[in-house]
Model the fold of this input.
Amino acid sequence: MHSLQTVVDLSRWQFAATALYHFLFVPLTLGLSFLLAAMETVYVTTGRKIYKDMALFWGKLFAINFALGVATGLTMEFQFGTNWSQYSRFVGDVFGAPLAIEGLMAFFLESTFVGLMFFGWDRMSRGKHLLVTYMVALGSNLSALWILVANGFMQSPREAVFNPVTMRLELTSFADLIFSGDAQAKFVHTSIAGYVTAAMFVAGISGWYMLRNRHMELAKRSFRMAALFGVFASIGVISLGDALGFIDGGAQPAKLVAMEAMWKTRTPPAGFNVIAFPSQKQQRNLYEIQIPKLLTPLVTRTMDTVIPGADEVENQAMVRMKDGIPAVLALKTLSADPTNQPALAQFKAHEQDMGYALLLKRYAPDLRAATPADYQRAARAVIPNVAVIFWSFRVMVLAGFSMLFYLGVAAYCSLNNRVQDRRWLLKLAPWLIPAPFIACEAGWLVAEMGRQPWTVYGVLPTWMSVSTHSVGYLVFSLTGFVLIYSAFIVVEAYLMLKFIRKGPDEGRLAAPLH
Amino acid sequence: MELYAVLKITWWLLLGVLLIGLAVMVGMDMGIGAALRYFGRTDGERRAVLNMIGPHWDGNQVWFILGGGAVFAAWPTIYATAFSGLYIVMLLLLWSMIIRPLGFEYRSKLPSPSWRNLWDWGLFVSGLLPMVIFGAAIGNMLLGVPFHFNWYLESWYTGSFISLFNPFAILCGLMSLLLALYQGSAMVMNRGEGAVRERARRLGTWAGLLALALFTAGGFWVARLSGYVVTSGDDPAGPAMPLRKIVEMVQGAWLHNFSAYPVLWLVPGLTYVGVLAGVWALRRGWSHFGWWLGALGWIGTIGTVGAAMFPFMMPSSSNPSQSLTVWDASSSQTTLLWMLGWTIVFVPIVLIYTSWAFWIMRGKVTPAHVEGNDHAY
Done:
C-alpha cells in the first residue's frame, strides 16, 4: 500500500509538472497566432510595410515559443498511456475520441500551415499567405477546443456509462461529449486567456522598446493592437470564468468548497472569504476575512440557495460510498459470468454510486469489512487541498483584474496617442508579462487539483488510475523530465531574450546568420 | 458480417494506414536528421538539407501524434497496455523525439559552431533512436510481450526493460532505420543539388539494399518463431474483453495466414518491388519516383507484419490467452462509428492541404537560398 501511494503521488507530480510546463507555451501560441493574423491583415489591406515587419518580428518570437509547445505537447500525448494506463483503458472509449479528432482536425491544420507561414512569404500571393496565417490561428484554437472537450468529460462525465462486460466506461452520446457546458465554457475561458497572455507579452515588450526609444513605429503600433485586443479579451476571460465558476459550483461541490474555503454549511446568504488560512487537518480556517452575504449570490445567482460546505459534501459522499458497495461486489461475479442476472440487477441498482465505493476501497480493500473510521478517512479525501486551491483561485482572479485594469488604461492612452508620455505605464508593462502566465497556471491548479481525488469526477478515483509501475520507474522518469525540461527552458529563455534585445530588423533585408 | 466486426477490421486497416503515414513522413524526416552530418559537410550544406524539410517536419510529425490519438480512441486497451508496459522504451522514444522540434527551430538561431554541432548531434539522436525503437516495438509485437491482466483488466508488465532489445527486435529496428534513411535520401535528392544530391544517392542505394537484406533475414527468422493461434473463444463481434479465449503458441504460426491465403504473398512482394525499383530509380536520378517507391516499400513491410499477425495485435508471451486481438481490444461500436465518420471527412482534407504545402515549397534548396532567407533554419 505504501508503494502504491508513492506511485500515485509521483505520477501526479510528473503529470502536473509536465502539464504546467507545457502550458507555459500554449497560451502564447493561442493568442499570438491571432495577433499575427491581425497584423498581417492590416498589412494586406493597407499595404503598409511596417505591419509586415511587425508580423515578421513577432513571428520570430512566436516560432521560438512554438517549438517548445510542440515538443512538450508530445509528452502529454504519451503520458496518459505510460503513467495512467488504468485510466486510459477505463475511459479510452470516451476520452480518446476528442484527442484523436484534435490531431485530425486541428493539429494537422496548425502544423502544416505553420511551416508555410514561416517559409512561404515569397512563394505565394499576399492574400494566400494571410489565409495561411489564419489557418495557423484556427488550428491552434481548434486544438484547444478538443483538449478541453476531453477535459470537460473528466470534470463532468455525463455522456458515458460503465459497461460491466468490458469493465470500462463507454460513450453513450457523442453530442453530449462535445456540447458539455463545462467543456464549452472552459474552452472559451482558456483560449481567451491565451489572447490576454499574448496581449500582455506584446504590450510588455513594446513598452520596453518605447521606454528606450527603440523601434518606435513598430512598438507603438504593436502596443496599441495588443492593448485593444487584450482589453476585450480580459473582459471575456473574466466573464467566462464567472460562468465556469457557476457551472463547476453546480457540478463539483467539493471544488467549490476548496475554492471558497467553506468548511461548514451556512444558512444563506453565505459570506465570501476574501482571505483565509485553511487547515485541512482541523477542517476549519485558522483565520479569515469575510464579506458577509456575498458568496451565495456570486455562485448561485440567488440569495437563498444553500451552498454545501465540506461537512455536507463529506456526509453525502459517505452515503454514496455505502450505496456503491454492492455494485463493486457484483463486478467480481460479472467478470466471471457476464450473464449472471442477479449480479447484473445488483450492479444496475447501485452503479450510480460505484465510483464512491471505489474511492472507499483505497482505505478499505475489503469493502464488506469497511469500518466507520475507513468511511471517515475516505470522506475527508473527497475534499481537495483547500489551501492551494483557495489561494490559486485568488491569485488567478487578482492577476486577471490587474491585467484588465492595466490594459484598459493602456488602450485608452494608446488611442489618444499619449502612451509615449506615460512613462509609468511603459515601465510597468514588462513587469506585467509574468501575470498572465501565473494566472493560467493557477487556473489549471484550481481546475485539476480541485477535481481530486478523482480523475473522472465521481466515477474513477485517482488512486485507481495509475499504471502498475515500481517506484524506481517513476523516479527515473521524473528525474529525466526535470533534467531535460530545465535545460530546455534555459535555452528557450536565452534565445527569447536575445531576440527581444536584438529587436526587429528595420528596413534591412534579412540579416544572414554566419 | 456484423457491423461491429466490420468496424473493427476497418479500424485495424486504418491503424495500418496511420502507421504507414507515420513511417513514410516522419521516417523521412528522421532519416534526414540521422544522416544530416553525412549529407552536409559544411554548415551551409547542412542548413540547406534542414530547410528541405523545414516547412514540413511539423506537419509530418502529426502522423505520429494522430497515431497515438487514434490508438487511444480506437484501441484503448492496446494504448494503455503497450505504453505502460514498454515504459522505459517509451520514455527514451519521447525524450529523443522532443529534441527534434528544438533542433530544427533553434539550431541556426545562433552562429556559434559548437552550438550548431550540439544540435546536429541532437538531430542525429532524435532521428536514429525513434526509428530503431519503432522497428523494435513492432519486432516485440511479433515475439509477444510479457504482460497479463487481473480480473478488472488492470495490466501488469512482467518483463525487464533490457529484454525488449533482443536480437530479433534489434534487427527490426535497424530495418526500420534503413528504410527511413532511404526515404530521407530520396527527399534530399528531390530538393538537393551537386555533392549533397550525390551523397544522398549513395546512401539511398545502400540503405535500400541493406533494408531488403534485413527484411529477408527477418522473414526467415519469423518462419521459425513461435507465433500465436486462437484455438477457441474467438468472437469477431464480441465485446472488448480479452480474457475469454484460449490462445496457443505454435512454431511458424505467423505463416499460417499466408498458407491459408497465398495471395497475401503479394504483400511482402511489394517491399521487394518497391525498394528494388526505388534503388534503381535513385540510380537513374528519378528521385521523386524513388520516393513513392520507398513509400510502397513501407506499405509492403507494415502490411507484411499485419498480414502475418492478424487477428493478433499485441500477443502476450507470459499469458497467451490474454493476448490482445482485433476482436477484443477495440473501442465500442458507437465510438468506432463516430471516429470513422470524422476520419472519412477529415483525412481527404488533410491530404489535400498537405499536398498543396509540398507543391508550394517544391524545388531545389541550396546554401545560397538559405543565406538569403530570414526565416530559414
Summary: The longest helix of chain A spans residues 216-251. Residues 260-300 of chain A form one domain.
